[in-house]
Amino acid sequence: MFKDFYAQRGEYVVISAEQASRFAKGVAGDYNPIHNPDARRFCVPGDLLFTLVLVKFGLSRQMEFRFTNMVSADIPLQFSEADNGDIHVCDDGGKCYLQVVRGGEVTHDEAAIEAFARCYVAFSGKNFPHYLKPLMEQHGVMFNPKRPLVIYDSMGFSLERLDGFSPDLALTRSSLDVQGKRADALLEFSIESAGEAVGVGSKKLVVSGLCDYNATEMASIVDEFYRLKAAYEAA
User: Fold this and answer.
1) I need a labelling partner for 16 at 20 to 30 A (CA). Which of 24, 36, 194, 233 fits?
2) 17, 56 in Cβ contact below 8 A?
3) Is the pLDDT score of 152 beyond 90?
4) DSSP conformational letter for 81
5) How far is CA 226 from the centre of its chain?
C-alpha cells in the first residue's frame, strides 16, 4: 500500500519531493504550491505521514494525530512505537514531526486501512478552497495572498467498529476562531459505512498572517488552484 510514495532505507523512511508532490496531487487532490518539488518552502503533506502511520501500525478505533514540525524532502524519518502504544515520527537527530495517541481495537486489514486512508485524505485535501474560503469570507479575513500560510495542526477520530468497513467522510460543521493575525479553523466530520454512521472526527488548521478579506485577490488564488488542478490532470 502506498509504496510509490516513500522509500524504506533500513529503519528509516525517506520521502522525496517528487513522491510527496505526487501524493498531494494524485491522492489528496491538494494543489497547494508548498507541495511542489521546486517550492522554496517545500514540505511533505501531513496526510502522507498520517497514511504511513496507518500502513505501519494499523487503524485503531480511536486515534489522535498532532503535527509538531514541517517535514522537508529527503529527511530520514523513524516511525517508532512507545511502550504505551503512542507513535512518534522523528528524524535521526531526535526532532519530532508527528505524535500519535491511540486506543481501542486495531485492524491490520489492508483493504480497510487503504479505504480509510484514501477516504480521509481526499476529504482533508479539500482544505482550500472548499472549506477555508467560505469560512474566511464569512469572517472577513484571509491569509496573506503573497505568502499564504495554512498549517496542519492536528486531527482525531473515533470509530464504533472496524469490521465490514467501507468508509465515507462528510463535513458536518466548520468554524473559524480569529485571534488577531491568526485563526484556528476546525473542520468536523462524520464517518459512515454503507450509509450507517460509524464514527466522528475533526481536523484543526492554523491560518497565519491574516489580513482583511479581498474578494478580487481571493478569486485570483482560487483561479490559480483550478489552473494547477487542470494542468496536473491534463498531464
Assistant:
1) 233
2) no
3) yes
4) E
5) 19
